[in-house]
Amino acid sequence: MKEAIKNAAKVIIESRATIALTGAGISVESGIPDFRSKDGLWSKFDPEEYATIYAFRENPEKVWRMLKEMEEIVGKAKPNNAHIGLAELERMGLLGSVITQNVDNLHQEAGSKDVIEYHGNSKTLTCLWCKKTYDYEEKKGQYPPKCECGRILKPDVVFFGEAIPPLAMERGYQLAGSCRALLIIGTSAVVSPFNMLPRMAKQAGARIIELNLEETILTHDITDIFIKGSASTSMSEIISHVEGLKADNINR
Ligand code: APR
What we know:
It is a single chain. This protein has ten helices and nine strands. By secondary structure, the chain is of the alpha/beta class. The protein has a domain at 1-31 and 79-119 and 158-252: Rossmann fold, CATH 3.40.50. The strands form two sheets. It has a six-stranded parallel beta sheet with strand order 3-2-1-7-8-9, with helices on both faces. Helix 5 runs parallel beside helix 10 (231-251) and helix 8 (166-176) packs parallel to helix 9. It binds adenosine-5-diphosphoribose. Adenosine-5-diphosphoribose (APR) is lined by residues 23-25, 28-29, 34-37, 40, 101, 119, 186-188, 190-191, 211-214, 216, 230-231.
């Protein structure tokens, strides 16, 4: 695996146009379960019953039982070395944007400035009826949170059956189609349209680096450099190699 880390660091240094795609796996070491691993969220809550917009309209109180559990976990979570490593690469001018499926705000808390949230963010809530929006803090501790019109509020995360925010979609396609290297971290890549981005980048000639605990449907299809292991350990090793290469370049 050491060779793969070195190769990834070299690609990132040479690329000058690297972006990152992240999924729930990058936040597991911050204490937030992912969805499809053995003890993931969907092993506890059937997404058909808890994660579609139809389920929310049908029975918002029931969906808020899952959301409450997730909010309590996310509320305690802090960025780990994988989030911090991506923010570090951005600070060094070696990473442009992070396109994430996560709604936990940990990339922003780690210091990443350009974060594109494909599946929205849990920091605000909207009333589906009167369209009024609230900050999460205004309704913290209220379950289910209610709008002043009396209806139950929905967090501004994208449920199955809802559209991806158009600006996020547009920027995602533009960045995937023009990057020279792609860092894919902690995603099973089974959910569209997010999972179209890796292939778009590959078709545009980008080098694909994948960090995951296990192989995914991308690994033997489009991935050039696969780094098996936890996101925080792998990112920390990549960062130290990148810093070493940068130091070598300066001393030349
Ligand atoms: N380090 C690296 N990878 C990890 C780690 C870790 N510590 N822990 C888990 N993983 C990997 C798993 O092996 C898996 O491939 O992260 C991936 C998580 O996959 P999913 O649980 O499917 O999460 P994600 O890909 O983000 O799901 C996409 O599906 O349910 C919807 O809206 C939800 O945004 C989510 C979307």
